[in-house]
């Protein structure tokens, strides 16, 4: 078996408490699109665009070349590269036909150590695969929704030829050059006893594979059929509830219209700027972000109504990112 059974997040992590404040974000999430061709049962897209607008003030749209080009040009102002540029958001990135251009532009600008996308891979034709590979993609993370065509239709309402889907992933893997292929599936998308089939199926067409545990990521989505608990992350690690969200200390998220938020969640807890009005450098060092970071360090994040319903600190934040125990010390390093 060539593939490793390991979580799909970066395994070589800096202890965040020792590094903040950072001169530049470790990770920049740029959302090429907020459209999706799936309506997975555990995702906000299952609510439909009308309810998503009501619940999250969510607008489906594609990012333009103009907006993206501004982001990359502004990224050159930082003194250090991003560790990762993730062309991933609350949608399926392959729906934006400009994706290969986006990858290539960032590569040429040399603003990041690696570029990744997270995709359901349903649109990963051979032609698209070649375009992504030639553009210089470093990591393709594939989120599966089952191990059969029937399961896909059940979980996300999408008619998928599963055998063709696997063939397309195999084609990408065998032609990928330096790119890594990571494959993951939520436990609730597996039938009883399918774990070994998952590992066998992707053992020779991925570099890393993992089964994650479903957590209540989207407020308003019914998780009653899962065993979701916010003090257990999606990798099965139990921890004390975190009152300091570490995400705004090492990342930014950018919506297709240029709005910048201090994380990558669907909620937009605060808009700290827009790339059409000010630079990413000024946003990263600006008063709006600092005010939001101070809210976190004072363990008052639940005073923000969007943060109150968000489980990201307990779901996706890694042990090395936790700031609760050192918040009093860290706050003294910042200029508020």
UniProtKB/TrEMBL annotation:
Q: Which UniProt keywords apply?
A: 4Fe-4S, Iron, Iron-sulfur, Metal-binding, S-adenosyl-L-methionine
The reply on keyword Metal-binding is yes
**Cross-referenced InterPro entries, in alphabetical order?**
4Fe4S-binding_SPASM_dom, AdoMet-like_SPASM_containing, Aldolase_TIM, Radical_SAM_PqqE_MftC-like, rSAM, rSAM_sf
Could you say which cofactors this protein requires? [4Fe-4S] cluster
Instruction: Report whether S-adenosyl-L-methionine shows up as a keyword of the record.
Output: yes
A Pfam family per the record: SPASM
Instruction: Write down the PANTHER family for this protein, in alphabetical order.
Output: PQQA PEPTIDE CYCLASE (PTHR11228:SF7), RADICAL SAM DOMAIN PROTEIN (PTHR11228)
> What protein am I looking at?
GTP 3',8-cyclase
Q: What organism does the record attribute this protein to?
A: Sporomusa silvacetica DSM 10669
Q: Which gene encodes it?
A: moaA_1
């Amino acid at each position: 078996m060539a593939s490793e059974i390991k979580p799909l997040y970066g395994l070589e992590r800096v202890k965040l408490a020792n590094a903040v404040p950072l001169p530049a974000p470790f990770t920049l999430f740029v959302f090429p699109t907020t459209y999706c061709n799936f309506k997975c049962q555990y995702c906000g897209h299952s609510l439909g665009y009308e309810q998503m607008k009501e619940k999250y003030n969510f607008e489906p749209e594609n990012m333009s070349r103009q907006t993206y080009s501004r982001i990359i040009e502004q990224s050159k102002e930082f003194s250090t590269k991003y560790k990762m540029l993730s062309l991933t958001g609350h949608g399926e990135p392959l729906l934006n036909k400009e994706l290969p251009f986006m990858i290539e532009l960032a590569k040429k600008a040399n603003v990041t150590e690696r570029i990744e996308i997270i995709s359901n891979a349903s649109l990963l034709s051979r032609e698209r695969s070649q375009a992504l590979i030639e553009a210089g993609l470093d990591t393709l993370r594939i989120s599966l929704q089952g191990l059969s065509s029937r399961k896909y239709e059940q979980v996300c309402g999408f008619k998928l030829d599963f055998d063709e889907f696997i063939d397309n992933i195999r084609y990408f893997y065998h032609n990928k050059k330096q790119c890594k292929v990571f494959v993951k599936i939520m436990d609730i998308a597996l039938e009883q006893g399918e774990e070994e089939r998952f590992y066998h199926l992707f053992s020779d067409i991925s570099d890393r594979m993992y089964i994650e545990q479903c957590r209540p990521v989207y407020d308003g989505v019914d998780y009653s059929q899962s065993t979701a608990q916010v003090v257990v992350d999606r990798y099965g690690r139990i921890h004390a509830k975190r009152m300091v969200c570490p995400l705004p200390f090492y990342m930014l998220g950018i919506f297709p219209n240029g709005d910048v938020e201090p994380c990558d969640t669907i909620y937009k807890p605060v808009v700290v700027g827009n790339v059409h009005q000010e630079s990413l450098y000024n946003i990263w060092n600006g008063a709006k972000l600092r005010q939001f970071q101070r809210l976190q360090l004072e363990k008052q994040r639940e005073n923000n109504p969007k943060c109150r319903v968000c489980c990201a600190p307990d779901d996706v934040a890694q042990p090395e990112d936790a700031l609760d125990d050192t918040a009093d010390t860290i706050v003294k390093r910042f200029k508020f």
